[in-house]
Design brief:
The chain has 200 residues and is mainly beta. Helices cover 4% and strands 45% of the residues.
Length: 200
Amino acid sequence: MFRAFAVAAGLFLAAASSVQAQTWTIDSSHSAAQFAVRHMMVTTVRGDMGKISGTVTFDPSKPAAGSIEATVDVTAINTREAGRDKHLKSADFFDVEKFPAITFKSKRIDPVAAGGFKVTGDLTMRGVTKEAVLNVEPLQPTIKDQRGNPRTGTTATTKLNRQDFGVNWSRTLDGGGVVVSDEVSVTIDIQLIGAAPAAK
């Protein structure tokens, strides 16, 4: 469920043509993996999955050859409700003592209309690995930070069935419906940082 998740991002392959093939690091302090799930059939609960980290490698002239590996530290899940967060970390949901991280490793990157990408990869959650597809927006134009490091970013989305990963706790409501829906929407906002050009 979770916007693995890392990471997302093979996405970033639309870099400007002036940028040569290189490896980018996910800037954890300016990136987020968030989820949204229906609760009791009447509202949507949103939360932050935890710190996201990883790397993205791509060549603007060969976007399909890019790759991404990302990790989300689910021990830091935060829905702004301590009791709910404790339950989500328990064996009923993510079982973070046994499975503290969600990972994503890309297998294929396909350009789509309007400059975006579909990134297919292996998402591992709670010890279960399933294929997931991330819908990635076009990469933002590259800028330089105050230290001369190039930066760019994008947003990726996907929808997952939590039951596929063994996250199956719920209860049936009187009159029909369930406490927690199976479908989970994931959104990943990623900022990437590259190495500053070597001094000549």
